[in-house]
Amino acid sequence: MIRYTLAACDLGRVLLAATERGVCWLSFNDADARALAALRAEFPTSDLHCDDAGLAPSVAALKNHLADNSQTLDLPLDVHATAFQQSVWDKLRQIPRGETRTYQQVAIAIGKPTAARAVARACATNPVSVVIPCHRVVGTDGELRGYRWGLWRKKSLLAA
Length: 160
What we know:
This protein is of the alpha/beta class. The chain is built from six helices and six strands, in the order βββαβααβααβα.
């Protein structure tokens, strides 16, 4: 069973979903119906149950994190990944708030210097936006590249 909640935040609508082990999905959207459709597509065989009250502490922690640069977002996670994705996501969690890295820098840091495109793909498939801060990765030229939840959100997250 996956519990979920939808809430308003500075980045629009957030959908936070969790299993008994931790957060398995965190996304931003402009419409609840699209957010729920994405959750259903990601977990097509799971029972989904709305649990606004039960997930309120996690949503509050997220909102505090978005509002306060120094606030650390430390939510338990239940994400499934390949070994490569996990190595990328672990490296992303080490990027300090207020800093960025390029896809190439992340590839080098995980010992796969020719895997910049694969790093970009691992960022694009990150199921827990902000908790695993894929928004902190930019192009080699320092320009923002695609962001699953919209470039304006990536820009906003980097400005915070």
